[in-house]
Amino acid sequence: MDSALVLSNEALSKNIYLLTLHIDSQKASKFKPGQFLKILFDDQRLDPLIPRPYTVHTLSDNRLQILYQVVGKGTTALSKVIAGQVLRFLGPLGKPFPEDLPLPLGLCAGGVGVAGFSFLLQKLPPSHLKSVKLYYGTKTKEDLVRLELFESFGIDIELATEDGSLGNKGFVTDILEKDLKRQGISTVLACGPRGMLKRVKELAERHSIKAYLVMDTFLACGTGFCKGCVIPRKGGGFFHLCEDGPTLPAEQVDI
Ligand SMILES: Cc1cc2nc3c(=O)[nH]c(=O)nc-3n(C[C@H](O)[C@H](O)[C@H](O)COP(=O)(O)OP(=O)(O)OC[C@H]3O[C@@H](n4cnc5c(N)ncnc54)[C@H](O)[C@@H]3O)c2cc1C
Ligand code: FES
Question: Whose atoms come closest to the Cα of 53: which ligand?
Answer without folding.
Answer: 1
